[in-house]
Amino acid sequence: MADSFNESTFATFQNVSGFSSEDLALLAHIAPAVTPSLPKMTDLFYERLSADPATAVMIEGRVDALKTTHIAWLNELFSGGDPQAIVAHQEVIGRAHVKAKIPPVFVAASMSFLRATFPYMLASVITDKAEVTAATTAILRTLDVAQYLIDRAYLQGLMDNLGIKPVLLNRLMTT
Ligand code: HEM
What we know:
The chain is mainly alpha-helical. It is 81% helix and 0% strand.
């Protein structure tokens, strides 16, 4: 899969986590059972964001539009689309949040919400226990990939602001 920042770091992420295009294929396989529940999950997510004063101000006045975007994002994870394009899209999303000045802790908290919610949701819509376990593994790994790439966009934004070149940052982070 493509990695515009540093191919080897993403390869290592895959090697260690076990994430592969098979995870996305599995998510596509269970999509018919899962996707009808994504709008309700998104409503719950935006209730949480609206209930916290720090996140509420960032979404005020555009909750409906953001919900549509969020459901589209979740659907993409279950779409069976080109894995490289799906991975690359997470970097674009990261850059959009950097540009919108959304603090990374909000994205981390949101991913935590999703990681806590998906296992229960999957268990409620899939009957085969082994499939629930496999699907849970696949979505958790996929969310981890998304968060890694979004976080990396924040780091890249910081580097750009400080005038640090990617090659130097890699050296600083591995010594
Ligand atoms: C799991 C975490 C999140 C995901 C996956 C996500 C996903 C997305 C996506 C797909 C977009 C559209 C990006 C584009 O136009 O290319 C977007 C935009 C946006 N998101 Fe999120 N989001 C997350 C968390 C948050 C949080 C916590 C907030 C605020 C508290 C937030 C606020 C926004 C805003 C304001 C935009 C619009 C940016 C703009 O175009 O002005 N997002 N998000």
